[in-house]
Amino acid sequence: GFIGVCHISNKICIRYNMADPNKTIDQTGQCFCGLIKFHIKGTQFGNCLCHCKACSRKVGMSPVHLIMVVPRTSVTITEGEQHLKTVKGYGRLEQFICRECGGPIKQWLVAESPELMAFVDVYPTTFQISQGKNCTLPDDLKPRSHVNYENRHYDWEDSLPKFAAFPPDGRVDNKGNPV
């Protein structure tokens, strides 16, 4: 099975099997300037609003909506691979961006263990789903939880489950208090 991990530190937090074989993803996307185009086809490993410093510092906001997909090879660059730049992220993250516009394409954890290297994170904001001005995500791509909520910038008053780090442990309420 696949496992939940903590991106924020150099310590890996193994949690539990998060993969759901019924939650598949088959999407296309591109960077902001359109030079890099890609296709994602795999199984959703997780779908969350991540409040960790690694994700937040990369995109300049918190939380960041991430969909974790297995296998890691689920993302195929279909156009503009020569514009793809690899950058060292915070902690053990490696991020892939467009060298022209800086738009995020994907990120993953650099680790020794094959299980920890099994997934790739993608950003729904880069998916090609808009119909004119409407960019509403379909239900199967909407986030299902908040993770690393202990790093939030402010409290979120929504109905999504919240976890101090990763599920299933550390469930918290909207104010960050244990439940």
Distance between the termini: 27 Å
By DSSP, the count of extended strands is 11
What is the structural class? mainly beta
Helix/strand order, N-terminal first: EEHEEEEEEEEE
Main sheet, how many strands, which sense, barrel? 6 strands, mixed
What shape does the CA trace take? globular
The parts where pLDDT drops under 50 for at least 5 residues are: 1-17
The overall pLDDT, averaged over residues, is: 85
Beta-strand residue fraction: 25-35%
| Whole-angstrom Rg | 16 Å
Helical residues, percent: under 10%
Number of helices, where a helix is a run of at least 4 consecutive DSSP H or I residues? 1
Short note summarizing the structure:
The protein is mainly β and 179 residues long. 4% of the residues lie in helices and 34% in strands.
SSE blueprint and pairings:
Elements: E1 24-30, E2 37-50, H1 53-59, E3 64-70, E4 75-79, E5 84-88, E6 93-98, E7 104-109, E8 120-122, E9 145-147, E10 162-163, E11 171-172
Question: What can you tell me about this protein's structure?
Answer:
4% of the residues lie in helices and 34% in strands. It has one helix spanning 53-59, and strands at 24-30, 37-50, 64-70, 75-79, 84-88, 93-98, 104-109, 120-122, 145-147, 162-163, 171-172. Strands 1, 2, 3, 4, 8 and 9 form a 6-stranded mixed sheet that branches. A hairpin with a 5-residue loop joins strand 6 (93-98) and strand 7 (104-109). The longest helix is centred in the first third of the chain and has 7 residues, at 53-59.
